[in-house]
Amino acid sequence: MNILVTGGAGFIGSHTVVELFEAGYSPIVVDDLSNSNASVFDGIRNILGKDIPFYQVDCNDFDKVKEIIEKEKIDGIIHFAAFKAVGESVLKPVKYYKNNLGSLLNMLELMDNTLAKKLVFSSSCTVYGQPDVIPVTEGTPLKKAESPYGNTKSICEDILTDTVTASKDLQIISLRYFNPIGAHQSAEIGELPNGVPSNLVPFVTQTAIGKREKLVVFGDDYNTPDGTNVRDFIHVVDLAKAHVAALNLLFKQTDKFYDVFNLGTGKGNSVLEVIQTFEKVNNIKLKYEIGPRRNGDVEKIYGNVDKAEQILGWKAEKTLSESLKNAWAWELKLKEKNI
């Protein structure tokens, strides 16, 4: 089965490419490299011992993506490609709506015009907004998103629901991620944001290695055990494996199909817990300070992930300590490569 992986040079995408290949699928990557780096393909090659087909194309370019789908005889799509920085989305909402909605609409139109009828969509726990009760389940009512980024994911899910309802043969799964962290155990691939990281862990590792002067914790006055935001941090390799499980389920379907799954560990850790665990497992003292809250941040969220275990046969296996060890090994590898 040939699987088109949009955004496949990114953090989650690259790890999913590896897991797809190891599960017997043939991944083909489309990525415009706007928030990723072509060097990731060296790491993938080192892990797999072979090159993965790669097209440097923007998913908003309908004609070029259609050409790739037809040329590569694509059987299914995993759609990661999207802008994802919460803070930036608050400042540049139009950029986020145009890209994130536009690229998905292109994929759906292409699915209608090609033989690729199966799609795994990269959604997010941000669709829950600030929930009244945690852990959230897939049945938790969706509240207003706290950021334009989160709202794009919510709107995309609405688009998917409507599209499958109207279709004859589309089969789609939305995966609501919590917070992916870590890196491949080989340290050949990991999180490599362009510019200043918007996610916590790469900021932690870059501060530890000296690329950043200090880490700022955005607020310590939240209603949480230590006052800092609480998130469900999941190892990126566990998350990648869930995409394989989702595809496996889609390829068993014969009629039109749509479902959503939470992907996380099922428990929350605070920002300070992450910092302290990183310091402990890597024997490093981190320079950080408390700053003001950041617009668009949810106070606390983690998910119930029973549905994914029961239906996908998947659950997260790696610990926070493993994730932070792997993330640090990846940062050390980047220093060795002068990246």
If you had to describe this structure to a student in words, what would you say it looks like?
- This protein is an alpha/beta fold.
- It has one domain (about 1-335): NAD(P)-binding Rossmann-like Domain (Rossmann fold, 3-Layer(aba) Sandwich).
- The protein starts with a strand and ends with a helix.
- Helix 1 (about 10-20) runs parallel beside helix 2 (about 40-50) and helix 9 (about 270-280) crosses helix 11 (about 320-335).
- The chain is built from eleven helices and 13 strands.
- The chain is globular.
Topology:
Blueprint: E1 2-6, H1 11-22, E2 26-30, H2 40-48, E3 54-55, H3 62-71, E4 76-79, H4 86-91, H5 93-113, E5 118-124, H6 148-166, E6 171-177, E7 179-181, H7 200-209, E8 215-218, E9 230-231, E10 233-235, H8 236-250, E11 257-263, E12 269-270, H9 271-282, E13 288-291, H10 306-312, H11 320-336
Parallel strand pairs: 1-2, 1-4, 2-3, 4-5, 5-6, 6-11, 7-10, 8-13
Antiparallel strand pairs: 9-12
Family: Belongs to the NAD(P)-dependent epimerase/dehydratase family.
EC number: 5.1.3.2
Cofactor: NAD(+)
